[in-house]
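User: I would dearly like some help making sense of a protein record. This is the protein in question:
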Amino acid sequence: MLLFSVLAAAIAPGIALLTYFYLKDKYDSEPLHMVIKVFLMGFLVVLPVMIFQRGLTIWLGDHTLLTSFGISAGVEEFLKWFVLYHIIYNHTEFDEPYDGIVYATAVSLGFATVENLLYAWAGYSSIGTLIIRSLLPVSGHAMFGVIMGYYMGLSKFSNGPKSKVFLALSLLFPWFWHGLYDVILNTLTQEWIWFIALLMLLLWFLGMGQVARANSRSPFRLMKPEEEVNL
């Protein structure tokens, strides 16, 4: 029973947050099987992330800024971005800006869910610890996904040089915020929780603004009600 409770606490936050952002799509919800597929791709990202991070740590050593921005945030955000760009960016189901947020949060939360499961399986996490992780790292991955998906959506539906700029920002911004998050964890030992809490509040404020703006750019919002029924 205890093992079941711990596993449930590890899995539930990612699924709950993904459901939340999936339901925030106001005009043209994505096929559920596609969202689940991308969520499961987040599971698969974990293995190459672990391999690259281990190799880079052996090669470059353990230095706070390098570890935070390069080995941790850099590897994780690049591989999530790589999956989205090569599998989702040109997919026919990516047909409105908000779709970028749905798929980016799916792959991010899939990754975060496996991280939680690994902590639980290794015996490092009690239920209380997993609840804290749901409020911080899992929520953090969700916000990095929102930011990545927002700019990927802008890139998808922009033309010319702006499209390339937004595509670059879809990697750079989540990388920066993730790196800052890790720097706080790696440098502060006593009062880190207050700085992380402030950072998470800021990220949620920015993220929810991006959710609203992405929805406002949907081409489906201009359809007449009778047209929406026929979708």
In short: The chain has nine helices and no strands. The radius of gyration is 18 Å.
